[in-house]
Sequence to fold (1093 residues):
Amino acid sequence: MLRTAASIGMALLVAGAASAAQSPSAPTANAKPSAELRGRVTDAESGRPLRHAIVRLASSNPGPARESRAAATDDSGRYAFKGLPAGRYSVSADKGGYVQLSYGQTRPFEPGKPIEVLDGQTVERVDFSLPRGGTITGRVVDEYGEPVPNLFVQVHRYQFVQGQRRLSSAGRQATTDDGGDYRIYGLPPAQYFVSARGSALTPFVSAAEDRSGYAQTFFPAAPSPAEAQRVAVGAGQSVFDVNIEVREARTARVSGIAIDSQGKPMNGGIVSIGMPSGGSAGGRLRVDGTFELSNLFPGTYSIRAQGASISTAGAAAETASATITVTDDDIDDLQLAAQPPATILGRIVLESALESTVKPAQFRIGAVALDSGSLPGGGSMSTSPHDDFTFELKTGPGRQTFRVFAMPPGYVLKAVRLDGSDITDSGVSIASNEEIRGIEIEVTTHPATVSGLVTDGRGDAARDYTAIIFGRDEQRWTMAGSRWILTARPDQDGRFRVPALPAGDYYAAAVDYVESGQWTDPEFLQALRSRATMFSVNDGESKTINLRIVQRP
Amino acid sequence: MRAALWFVATLIVSAGGAAAQPPPQRDRPPDAPGTGIIRGRVFDAGTGQPMRQVRVRTAGPGIPGGRTALTDVQGRYELTRLPPFHYTISAAKPLYVNAIYGQARIGVPGPGLQVDVGDGQVVDHVDIRMSRGGVISGRITDEAGEPMNDVQVAVVRMQAVNGLRRPTVVASRVTNDIGEFRLFGVQPGQYYVSAIVAGSVDVENLPAYASTFYPGTTDVAQAQSIAIEPGAVLSGLNMTLLPARAVGISGVVFDAAQRPVAGGSVFMNSPVSSFMGAIKPDGSFSIRNVTPGQYVLRASVPGAPAGESAMLPLSVGDVDIEDIRLAPVKPTIVKGRLVVDLGATAQPAFDAFRVTPSPADLSFGTAAPGAPVQVKPDGTFELRLQPRRVLISGTGAGGWHVKAVRANGDDITDTGIDISGESMSGLELIVTNVTGSLSGRVVDAAGRPASDASIVIFTQDRSRWHAPIRFAVSTRPRPTGEYTIGVTHAGPVYVVALENIGQDEWLDPVFLERVVDRAVKIDLVDGQKQTLDLTVASER
Fold:
């Protein structure tokens, strides 16, 4: 049931002489982009054209210019993107009530395939055959059996996020009506959990004496997914009577004070609160540095206070944060104490001095927290380098590395160094009030790349697979947002291509099907390792490797 | 000086909405332990059955955050620990129209009756009847008969803002994959139903659809008005949306230094629809699929200094509009001071006053042209205002109020002032503590006290019915039929007692025109206590 394939019309015709096998040619200067990509969207069951479907296109390469466009289909289901620059594109199609599909996606939750478009080329028959989505309908009632209106109903699904199977929200939200009824549609076949809850985090609405609300409850009446019942939705199937019983619960209040690094109450500023499951809210600190947060259901929250910023000279505002666990009881005396920020001094290193067309303002550098439990944002700020490509960054304490959040088209990060040693992945421990000098952030326009072709069990050219490239060093698999795990799907010539990867030693394996994100699971990679091909790549090297499809672990 | 009328509505008017709000946190006095109790029951007005899980709420001085109670299965509630005060009691439950104890019409928001509680006193039988809100449901299809998902369907009420009738969205929902919508909890009244396709996505070749009013017109004047009775369920309000000429709006957003802005969004808002477009790295924006109407364009730029905003009123017809330049304007600093009126009998605490700017016309929408400010102890204040025509008003405390607003000697209380340039000065708010009153008794045709009536007082100067609402005021009598209203400035007025008036209906010039020939004329004299007995005007 889970694997019910969504059949997709995949015939693709390339009009234009050039072969797509070579890497995309650099755009001719001053030439107006003139490539074209078009196709048709139909109903998978009847083959009828789908009008007013929305087709989205995005370039999946670093540079030359990031394209992101959307177009609607006409009455015959046709769409076209004109005036495209050359590049590698991902394309997806969506229509209300249908399953959203990426081009080249043959199974649920599989990544789509890129489409290589050359200068001036017209790529046709980028067609989609959309299957009808499944629906889940039901009613939310309270313990007296009365319908509860205005609750948010969500579906969740276990997905791989950074190596862990996590319950993540999937698909659309719905709101219950006056009969407590809801309807969620457009669902791909899968096993889902369904939950209902009252309004999202509203910590700044004074709760007065009225402290009750509806905490998240999973079908049929479970406070956590562990006790919840799964709902299996087949392809295009309608599942009825997924009725959820919710109960009003008391909410807690958290109050306290934010103190700056001098030990004085923060004189105004912002307090924000976030939940690990997502959702955050922010409001003002009172002028005496105190705050009060209401309507909190039991759970773990991260709270952060940021002093009123001194807008002159870009000085960073002080921040203070804490992680708290809320039960039924109020927390009255939370103290958030700020530490003075650390100062990071460094420079951006370009590959050659010839790159005079690049301006410092095109770069933006920021710190990234590496220790778990760090707050999103972590108190770090981002900055642009000065005219001589040096920069000064303020950040909070903790283990951190540095990344380039914005750079000119065609550039990628090569390495981050401190006093000559590579800290790109390992980062550096930063203490409060510390000054760290000598950070070098090297960027390049010629990263290492890897591409290749894949054959199936009979030795024939494979056109539908996922290539997984992962570092030989196991410890690099579990890093947050690891640079050492990369995947690629074949383009219209059956070729996979990873446009940029760090120089080093790797495994490569091609599998028939893998769910998006599963490759972040260390156990999966361990099992895959024995079936993989080893290769190494040097700085700036373009490696070609050919793979044979292996059995998925 | 022109004759103007000023009423201190807050003195007497027992409007439930305002009284039920908890006071702002920073003003919280300590929780005074009261000993009074109010209790009663809540019933469904339709079935007569008691209602459980109803939130009954009141607020007053000494009880920050108010008091809340939930009704039990017999519909009983009890509000305890109440300090002596005259309380307004409100009740809320999902799907029901919020109710206030003693309101004139069940299911129609309006002022209620106050409940006097003394020390240790138990007031019983404060019973409230609630009516279910109306339900409107239907289905939206396109010109080919296909269901349309994600269409925003709204219940719209015509509301007078600054004397101008303007559609106001009361509730809205989006359609599902089979085109269905269901709006519920709608309070009784006259409505229009509108449907718009959200235009937030920049999609090429997306057919545009006009914002459509039921049963199928783009002109609200030709739309069918829908009457919602308490608990009514209207289903089958199906609409076909018709394709419209897709108009494109494009231009460039600049910063204060006249450099193109990269990042952020441009929003276009009309009373019933809104569109959005991203600002590209070169500062340009382009919004497709805009439907005709009166809009206000606003650029929202991350990191822009507070108070700087780029806004532009824009009338969209059936042709594309290009080359729009949106540049933020630095707010004008407007300095002013309070001046104590010669007739005042004391010296006020200046910092108890607040000065509030509001739009003098609606070409920029209803958004405030600047933030309200508190007056400094020396009586001066400084506003940061967007350059447009702005009305200035002020509120005091402890019996003090603003009598007139002058700019360099001219009375601009009602006309407003054109804001421009870097800074302006010479704004004066004349304040006084001298208050007159109008009081009397309201009876029905049979001579019985008419405690369900509302009294509406409005100026005899018709040209001001379209002006701000301070030229009309409404209040409710006490159970004995007696009423009192504070009057702070003299002038000729009409006074009329009416039953069955809707929420804020008296703000509408059309309504005033309808009742004027049943009204009584009286000249209000500055600082005097005057009396006027009234008989409820006949229905027509």
Residues 76 and 542 of chain A are 43 Å apart (CA to CA). Chain A has five domains: 13-130, 135-250, 253-337, 342-444, 448-550. Confidence is low (pLDDT under 50) at residues 1-29, 310-315, 373-379 of chain A. Chain A is about 0% helix and 45% strand.
